[in-house]
Amino acid sequence: xxxxxxxxxxxxxxxxxxxxxxxxxxxxxxxxxxxxxxxxxxxxxxxxxxxxxxxxxxxxxxxxxxxxxxxxxxxxxxxxxxxxxxxxxxxxxxxxxxxxxxxxxxxxxxxxxxxxxxxxxxxxxxxxxxxxxxxxxxxxxxxxxxxxxxxxxxxxxxxxxxxxxxxxxxxxxxxxxxxxxxxxxxxxxxxxxxxxxxxxxxxxxxxxxxxxxxxxxxxxxxxxxxxxxxxxxxxxxxxxxxxxxxxxxxxxxxxxxxxxxxxxxxxxxxxxxxxxxxxxxxxxxxxxxxxxxxxxxxxxxxxxxxxxxxxxxxxxxxxxxxxxxxxxxxxxxxxxxxxxxxxxxxxxxxxxxxxxxxxxxxxxxxxxxxxxxxxxxxxxxxxxxxxxxxxxxxxxxx
Length: 398
Prior knowledge:
The protein is mostly helical. The chain has a single domain, classed as Growth Hormone, Chain: A. The protein has helices at about 5-25, 25-35, 40-55, 55-65, 70-90, 90-120, 125-155, 165-175, 175-190, 205-235, 245-270, 270-285, 295-310, 310-320, 325-355, 355-365, 370-375, 380-390. α10 (about 205-235) runs antiparallel to α11 (about 245-270), α10 (about 205-235) runs parallel beside α15 and α12 (about 270-285) crosses α14 (about 310-320). The longest helix has about 35 residues, at about 205-235. The model is unreliable at about 195-200 and about 385-398 (pLDDT under 50). It is a multi-pass membrane protein.
């Protein structure tokens, strides 16, 4: 495993997810400054998720076909510029294009970055993907602190939040030559290496189930990050000054879970870790709308840890199903599923306006049991399948 490359990409992921989620983190502040309704909050969250997510498979498909190694550095600049535009938005309607530009920058980053991690990981794909993904989860967690910072200086302080994006852009541009060489080497190997002797397992059903599971996971993460802070403000009287801690705890424990999930998958199997994650986190998530204030932070920590422990695992599991489309699968699982979840969050915002945030939270968690059941039908990991075939033939795998 090339640690320098992995940690550079992980920092790029930290900056990327920090910049894309600063907007979500400061929603309570924007609600006050722009007098937003819950429906408008849902629209902005949907616009951010769609721009940053639904187009990711397109970037992934382009990367698989020809590759654009320079796009990694450029994506961080687009993210920073989009966030800066939020500072100068005069009204709600002008927030939308700012959020969309910010989201497109994120969409451009993830497929190529995941492919670069694949090249740099060698035989430690679970650990490498975990390091990469935990960077993103730490970025999510740190973005929660942005609310606390901007409460002191106002929206004019957004420009300071661009610093990680500029640093990240410089570091990612430094990988352009290495990434271009790996892409060229991969293309040559694809042309020269014959079709693998181990037949590919049917993966359409498995990939469809995986996309559904990841979509539900993204629905919970986006829904909890967006509406739980607003819920504790409305239901328990938590002030805007202190509400950031709820998102921070949820995402920090998610980062810890992500870091633990990859090595666990390398040892116990990707499918097993995905099953454990969904089975344990389902009842914890379903309880959220019913527990008292004193238990909200505890429940958020547990849901974050178990639910996001599969953040890296689902990516390498999906890549094993379609090994010739690494970037596209990464965009599908990291991006497209999140975009679909974002559409649902817009609906939840309207439910909150029409009824209450308490009712909206009940809507957020209702798909979790179905996703947990779907894990029972997932196919065997590609890596374990490759081990089983020689064993069945009486050959000891190396």
